[in-house]
From TrEMBL:
InterPro entries: Phos_transporter. It comes from the Bacteria. The chain crosses the membrane at residues 40-65, 77-98, 104-122, 134-155, 220-239, 266-290, 310-335. This is Low-affinity phosphate transporter PitH. Keywords: Membrane, Transmembrane, Transmembrane helix, Transport.
């Protein structure tokens, strides 16, 4: 039992690191591309604020750990399902990073969790999954596009007669501040659910079998471990996905870059602190970038990059779930 719990902790730490590696550079990508801040300084800020954000809040943790999959029964099966979920989520996240394809680590984990639950016989709350995962998955990028489009159109009219140099200088100053804010909310969003599932594993060891597990709070040692893993992954973060979103997909000037980051910040904090639902920074930011391209001075959206991004957006949950189901079925055959 202790060995399985150690496996949960190790796979959770690896997934948290891959999360930071895959996603965290997105919080600073627009600002770096727009020359609002030096890449080295930006990455240092992302490490610090992802770590701080990972220590804050528990609302999303409750949704992920208590309301989507009902964990009860044999503790060994619960621990095995958590390991499978983390392995499937990490595998899909790293595979898509290799393809330079932006996907949501949140949806990787939720897909892995749903697949592991189905493979090993846990009940899945389909209505909660739709309300807390599928609807935010669909609605948040649409809101990101609409808000960013409207804000870009408004700012373009307001500053139509302003000289570009001072306007872009001010936009760069704003964007340099937004990078820290985005990194903070990325930590809040992404660390909570990982830490909550580690707590499920710890409760499975300490609770009587056949008792449904409910995470009430996350212990500080677990918070610190996951926060450190997320921060380390952020520090090692690659730029492949950033190039896809901030360079190849669209043409951004400093004003549009700041507008996309401001829109993403607004929606991410609303989801994390008010709605308490897991959403994807990747797709909110991507849709916000696209919104800037269709308002004011027309940008340069490139369909050959947009189509694979939308495909990854739609496929991540089912792909991670299918991978978890395959791993779960292999485990069941081996265990007998």
């Amino acid at each position: 039992m202790e060995l399985l719990l150690a496996g949960v902790i190790v796979t959770a730490v690896i997934f948290a690191g891959s999360n930071g590696f895959h996603d965290a550079a997105l919080t600073i990508g627009n600002a770096v591309v727009g020359r609002s801040i030096n890449a080295g300084w930006a990455l240092g800020l992302a490490v610090v604020f992802n770590f701080i954000g990972a220590l804050l809040g528990e609302g999303i943790a409750s949704v992920v750990a208590n309301q989507i999959v009902h964990f009860e029964g044999d503790p060994e099966v619960i621990l095995t399902s958590l390991i499978i979920a983390f392995v499937a989520a990490t595998a899909w996240s790293l595979f898509t990073y290799y393809l330079a394809l932006p996907v949501s680590s949140t949806h990787c984990l939720i897909g892995g969790l749903l697949g592991a639950g189905l493979a090993l016989g846990f009940s899945v709350n389909s209505s909660e999954a739709i309300n807390s995962v599928i609807l935010p998955l669909v609605i948040s990028p649409i809101l990101g596009f609409v808000i960013s489009w409207g804000l870009t159109a408004l700012l373009s009219k307001a500053f139509a007669s302003s000289p570009p140099k001072p306007l872009f200088r001010g936009a760069r100053m704003v964007d340099s501040v937004l990078t820290s804010s985005l990194s903070l909310v990325h930590g809040i969003q992404d660390a909570q659910k990982i830490a909550a599932l580690v707590m499920v594993g710890m409760l499975a060891v300490d609770t009587n079998p056949h008792t449904e597990l409910a995470v009430v709070e996350i212990s500080w040692p677990v918070r610190l471990i996951i926060a450190a893993a997320l921060a380390i992954g952020t520090g090692l973060s690659g730029w492949r996905v950033v190039r896809t979103l901030s360079v190849r997909m669209a043409g951004l000037d400093p004003l549009k870059s700041a507008t996309a980051d401001a829109t993403s910040t607004l929606l991410m904090y609303t989801a994390a602190l008010i709605m308490r639902v897991p959403v994807s920074l990747t797709f909110i930011l991507g849709s916000a970038i696209l919104g800037t391209q269709y308002a004011g001075r027309r940008g340069r959206p490139r369909a050959r990059f947009i189509v694979p991004i939308i495909g990854g957006w739609l496929l991540t949950i089912p792909a991670a779930a299918a991978l978890a189901i395959c791993i779960g079925l292999v485990v069941r055959l081996l265990v007998g």
